[in-house]
Design goal:
Number of helices: 5
Oligomer: single chain
Helix content: 55-70%
Strand content: under 5%
Number of strands: 0
Order of helices and strands: HHHHH
Amino acid sequence: ATCFISSITATMSSMWTSGNYHRMQSALLRKFLNQNRVPRELSSRITRYLEFVVEFRQKRVPQSNVKYLDLLSGPLELELKVELHLPRLVVHPCFAQIVSATRTAFADICAGAVTKSSFAKNDVMISRGKAA
């Protein structure tokens, strides 16, 4: 019973600390945006995007938080990377064809060319005159 109560106390403390941290960061963000006279429309977009990202990250465990994954061998790390990216990439006919022909080529693509980026609604990803 003592262990159970201790576990509940630790969980509640962690939740309070996390909530307090997020409230503090939100307040600092609002203060920063106000002090720097960021237009209301942009401030609103920034705030909405960050609220979405924070909520999303609370629901999923980021790979960077799993320190054991740093211990994987190169081949295991690559195999994991392929499995993580495969579902989103094979919907494109080009990648689907590469995977069906040779998974090794797809693994090479994942190893050297796949990175993760976050974008908000209406963000410009590519513009004329810039290298893609």
